[in-house]
Amino acid sequence: MSDTPVLQYSFLAPILIVLGGAVIGVLLEAFAAAKRRAVLQLTLTLGTLFIAFLSLLRIRNLTSAKAAMGSVMIDGPTILMQGTILLIAFFAVMIIGDVDNFTAQASAVPGSDEEKSALQAGRQQTEIFPLTLFAVAGMLLFPAANDLVTLFVALEVLSLPLYLMAGLSRHRRLFSQEAALKYFLLGAYASAFFLFGAAFLYGFSYSVTLSGIHAAVIGGTANNIFLLIGLTFISLGLLFKVGAVPFHAWTPDVYQGAPTPITGFMAAATKVAAFGAMLRIYYVTFAEANWNWRPILTVIAIATMLVGSIVAITQRDIKRMLAYSSIAHAGFLFTGVIALNKAGLAATLFYLLAYGFATIGAFGVITLVRDSSGEITDLNRWAGLGRRSPKIAALFSFFLFAFAGIPLTSGFIGKFAIFTAAYESGNIGVVVVGVLSSAIAAFFYIRVIVMMYFADDNGDSLTVVIPSPLTSIAIWVSGGVTLVLGVYPTPVLNAINTLATFIR
Amino acid sequence: MIRLSLEIGQTQKPEAILFYILAPLSVLAALGMLIVRKAVHSALLLAWVMITLAIFYIALDAAFLGIVQIVVYTGAVMMLFLFILMLVGVDAPDSLTENIKGHRATAIVAALGFGGLLISLIGRATLNHVSVGLAMANEPGNVQGLASLIFTQYVFPFEVISALLITAALGAMVLAHSQKSAGARLSQRALSSVRFRGDSLANAAGLPSSGVFARHNAVDVPALLPDGTPAKNSISGVLTARGDVQDSTQYALGSLPKVDDESGDK
Prior knowledge:
Strand content of chain A: under 5%
Distance between the termini of chain A: 29 Å
CATH class of the domain at 1-89 in chain B: Mainly Alpha
Radius of gyration of chain A: 22 Å
Order of helices and strands of chain B: HHHHHHHEEH
Shape of chain B: elongated
Strand content of chain B: under 5%
Number of domains of chain A: 1
Largest sheet of chain B: 2 strands, antiparallel
Distance between the termini of chain B: 75 Å
Structural class of chain A: mainly alpha
Strand order of the largest sheet of chain A: 4-3-5
Helix content of chain B: 40-55%
Oligomer: heterodimer
CATH superfamily of the domain at 1-89 in chain B: NADH-ubiquinone/plastoquinone oxidoreductase chain 6, subunit NuoJ
């Protein structure tokens, strides 16, 4: 008989709490009265995330421990990434809590009488809350996974709810459904590649654990072709999730079609999880095989930065523009990954935190700009917004400055740290392209600001709605974090530096 | 249990024969899945691919996996899939128009290139270690070996999969379950009082059935009233909404072409 497995629940507590909250949320769907469901779900979701964060704080000093029979690795970077994900998710849920952005009944045909009556009855799909929690649980597990099986399960757990939620927009529903289907099909395809790669890595190393594969990599006796194929396909699955350039085609459509709060959540939190997993795989498992992946990843980083920045210039839709900007940011993050040193790891972690909050805030603001038919994302109609709603426009400009990396915002510190790390590792070419594409990117961010403040007011019917208290807390806190990380980042940088060491 | 892999690490005759017969067939079936136009045919070809995979698994000593593949995937999932295809009646062939010019040609070239690259790589790959096969893992028995892995080493991912299943069920509910507002459906009693106590008793004996006497009896052809106009209530509302209703006046007696002389019933 085999021994009883030891799970070490205290290390798994954040993940288990979020999963537990999600299951309770599903039960609430079944038993709570429809009228009170939205409030109950929102409270439950925020409470769960808060408790999970507290339990994460409790284990922050117990770094470097394997839990769940070695499936999960709790080390410094895991704690940092899980913390970032929980914080981002907490504020994202505050914006998701404004259920006006979601369809009243997903099963009703768009434009049908059934849909109208569901809208009139004030029905809500409160299932988004447990779905969000499931996605968060997957994201918490993804950067912590220590073998390929757990990694794949986490990838699916985080993706499936996102596929679903992308299709639940209230306005322009056909568009939203198309986005969900596209995301689902391409995501399933990428998952298949990931599995294929995992099989080859098993053939290469006779192990699915990251440390086992690492042993085979430094052993050097195993067949390198298997390593090459496995590494390529595993990377492909991960590159898809972050929207790196050859695999970025889904990003603009999905970001545009999905309900805006979900887009914000997806853009911010998925990036943290996926880059977390990628950092672990490249730094822990394949560090010694870097001659295999570094050149390819360098090319991908350069292509991602350039395509993201250049194509964004031509976009006329604010969500689409931010989608391309998120592609460009994925490229900037890659410069930290290929740096392959401690500075690169720390800088990537900081950048993820900074970018995450700016993204949540920016998409939060977009949910507020509406006319009678719903959200307005057409850039031309944002002209003159700065004069009508100076406060919100100023806040949005601030987030755009952060994306562009202007000093006094978190984006500047993030970019500075990440390019420094890349420079130290000797990748001068990447740094040059990075700085260049930052300059290109600054152009279209500033164009939006010019539109909002200096273009003629076209007398449009669009207004900035008064945000619900939770939404305004979320966007102003995001603004505050972006400012504080830009003005006084030292404590956060120090904390990241002390914790940012991967353990095998 | 039939042990087809006689000696571990080498493909022995029986297994090789099995492989070389079934592998091309399964690849052909997989290609056919993409090429055939009807969803049902595609589903059946998928079932074939799954069964061949199951045979491979069993031949490789993974008996449990092979049986599960047949029972769960081919037996349950695939058949449910077929049921749904038939219930929904999706048999419309896919549209084959290219939205992006040259898309298909590019895709085929890229796929061939990618396949060629992979084949050339895998063709050169050799396993440098001695394969231990499943003999050791199967020592306590195939199912026992699998169980001890699932419930010790991989217990956590195994448990986390439950989240995936809940998400799938919840997602299906979100996308498909529609809450009819109360009172939308009338009871039997209310229906019959509407029928008999309404303004007219014209429909009391039931709605007229579709079709034109002796000429056409399809559901999309409205019945003709004595004055020659089509009876709208003989057609399902769904067909009317979809615009799939045929003009039944073309089947009316007056507008019929003269019956041929050979038919002899003049």
